[in-house]
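Chain A, query sequence.
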Amino acid sequence: MLLTITTTHVPATDLGYLLGKHPDRFQTFPLPFGQAHVFFPEAREDSCTAALLLDIDQMGLVRGRPDRIAKGGPASSKGGLFGQYVTDRAYAASSLMSVALARVFSSALKGTCRDRPELAESALPLSAEVAVLPCRDGEGLLQRLFEPLGYNVTLRPLPLDERFPEWGEGRHYQVSLSGTLRLCELLSHLYVLIPVIDDEKHYWVGQDELGKLIEHARGWLEKHPEQELITLRYLKHQRLLSRQALASLTPEKESEIHFGDDPERNMDRPISGKAEDALEQRISLNEHRIDAVVGVLKKLGARRIVDLGCGEGRLLRALLMEREFERITGMDVSLSALDRARRRLRLDEGSAGQSERINLFQGSLIYRDKRLEGFDAACILEVIEHLDPDRLAAFERSIFGLARPKAVIVTTPNADHNALFPSLSPGQFRHHDHRFEWSRAEFANWTQEVARRYGYTVGLAGIGHEDVHLGPPTQMGVFTLCA
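Chain A, predicted structure.
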């Protein structure tokens, strides 16, 4: 994994001051995943090149790190054991390169230079070359990301195998960028955009990563035409974090942030600035729902589970982490959502054991589907409110009457709680695609009628912080098939 940075500023060896590295020295820096080597292939008055070479310990990425498997880190990102070691990670630039940039060139990335502070503030003729950069989306994405930042972009598609030219080109590119800008700007662009292009971050993404994005992207991301795509990919497609990042960088446009109709950006459906996920962000309600549902499934002793309306696979990922769930199935009407779920869960790279354990397929909630029969539990999280009311009867018959899982878990917003959201007008739904939102009394009446009609018992519970008068933000019904 190789990155080179070149300047023709005179004297060009000033690049060593900016990077804090002496051109005459070969330096090595330990990293959690291997070593980073810094050296200068050329150091002349008219041209100077610094090289950052990562020597990845592919075995060390996996060995002895069960904690990172549980958190979706590098060990789990490739599924089974074979996929752990057979990968392009050691050769193609990825989030590993971003980590190395932050560790090895930390002062340059921050825009500071102890010996030549005025140089750090100067725009210089700079070029960078990434030897191998994976990009499934092709040359168009690379140009859309770098050209708005003022770079001249040169791309060379790399063949799958130079020995067999008839195999054609793969998804890897040699990428060369050139422009006149400050070194810290070049490094910040690479730090953020390399993992965006790769779209396979090797570590868990949370609030810390949100802070890093805001720190390194402030000043350029708010003006970038692909700001929504960049934030979504950088933050591993976590919409709540992405919205928070854009709201911080462009507060004046907060009400306009919607992740439009571009399939790459539209992770579920287009949403408005007052969408449900933004309203619920402060309480991490989605995480509460998933934890609550997994807890119920364990109490039920369920082994075979289907997630109906699985979307991007957030619940599926949580289920995969629990070995007691033997058969896990996800169904969604959207093929693009299922494709994103496969990528999120790394199903194409998983072991044979994992492939046998989980299955995804396209289907509808309102039509009979024999593939839905024989499950211990069906989970339907924040889905029914997206159905037209006149289709509820078909949904009830399809799931409770025909598929008849031993248990059904349904969650839906509590309309009573909406009064606590100051940005919602009276009668306004949390999401523009909701067809209805039920009060606690309405949900209780519906669950009791469905249970009576189809031979289930039902218990109700709340999810999230419960207001003494208005109840919890989410209500849950747990149906159990009568013996």
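The CA atoms of residues 439 and 478 lie 17 Å apart. The longest strand covers residues 169-181.
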